[in-house]
């Protein structure tokens, strides 16, 4: 018999041949003489038919979900519409279950077939098992393709991948969310963003990107905040703010195109998010000041329950209401200096606002934050003073402004948020393998 190690390798070529496969019992249905098993191996699913006398053996009569099994038999075609994955089934004539392969029983409770009233915390403690469920595994498979697509699209654009450090001594996005630790007796942090390091690569490598973990001590429970998340960041040299927006649009749409070109992944997305459609280009552009006006007109209050006014942060709830109503990607631009990070370039005409952008998506809100960067040394020094940041630790960042500075900009995209949007997931906790957030650091 030929060995068909992974169902996904299968295609039609195996029909009519004898194969040997390994998998886990995803579903089983026992009838009088016949047992139907759906096997799962991470690449696909395979329906197996076990007739008597095999169906009368002790191992088959006591078979539980999640048990690992080896089966041999003939692969047969099944007419379309019979609910057999890939329209085929295996007529099993031999099987083997080693004693250690057996699942303990009660597995329904640990995959995605758990009952609706199971405690959320219990589910999260069981993440290592709920990962086996249909939804969780689909999301993780989509994630794999999306991450690969980012790499492919950046390569198409000749943007080089680098790997900045995770342990740092400088902050990027404000002191409040820093994770501090002791680094051989010196204070250090887990990085909030690799941006500053990416900027230092421009002179030698041209445009660069990275896909690294970023860390934020977010002391609240929300649908979209993790303490550790995957940050797709890029930095582009000699560009204008408009170039930045166009690049961002291109990357996001191209990543979606590449992702959907993979048939398996497209099928998972279709199942998770049946209403998904490619965003229209160009994305809607909206200035911060117009967004405030829009929020006032739509009676959406700020965090204090008051009507929005210029200078307010647009908080998560308001932002999401806005994106849900507008229902398409939005580039929100030109935020005021005082609510944005120290490194952001000011607008040429209006020095109270920045050349900044947040990309907002329906259902999630902000998934990208980016800006042009201050590239003048004096202006940067003033920004450090304004934000009360001690510039000494930043000598390597300020040096960039001494030795051949350039107009440049970049952005960071939260991979989990991008996936929450693409896969229609309620929270970013479901779009990463083992979520880390306020007070959760296990499993
Ligand atoms: O808007 P942020 O804070 O921007 C930066 O860190 C820039 N230095 C990036 C850059 O220009 N290179 O974060 C960027 C994105 C957000 O839009 C969001 O998608 C994601 O990172 N993000 C988080 N995702 C999950 N959990 C958190 N706690 C996040 N904080 C930010
Ligand atoms: Mg942001």
Automatic annotation (TrEMBL):
<dbReference type="GO" id="GO:0006421">
    <property type="term" value="P:asparaginyl-tRNA aminoacylation"/>
</dbReference>
<keyword id="KW-0436">Ligase</keyword>
<keyword id="KW-0963">Cytoplasm</keyword>
<keyword id="KW-0030">Aminoacyl-tRNA synthetase</keyword>
<dbReference type="GO" id="GO:0004816">
    <property type="term" value="F:asparagine-tRNA ligase activity"/>
</dbReference>
<protein>
    <recommendedName>
        <fullName>asparagine--tRNA ligase</fullName>
        <ecNumber>6.1.1.22</ecNumber>
    </recommendedName>
</protein>
<feature type="domain" description="Aminoacyl-transfer RNA synthetases class-II family profile">
    <location>
        <begin position="142"/>
        <end position="435"/>
    </location>
</feature>
<dbReference type="GO" id="GO:0003676">
    <property type="term" value="F:nucleic acid binding"/>
</dbReference>
<comment type="similarity">
    <text>Belongs to the class-II aminoacyl-tRNA synthetase family.</text>
</comment>
<keyword id="KW-0547">Nucleotide-binding</keyword>
<keyword id="KW-0648">Protein biosynthesis</keyword>
<dbReference type="GO" id="GO:0005524">
    <property type="term" value="F:ATP binding"/>
</dbReference>
<dbReference type="GO" id="GO:0005737">
    <property type="term" value="C:cytoplasm"/>
</dbReference>
<keyword id="KW-0067">ATP-binding</keyword>
<keyword id="KW-0175">Coiled coil</keyword>
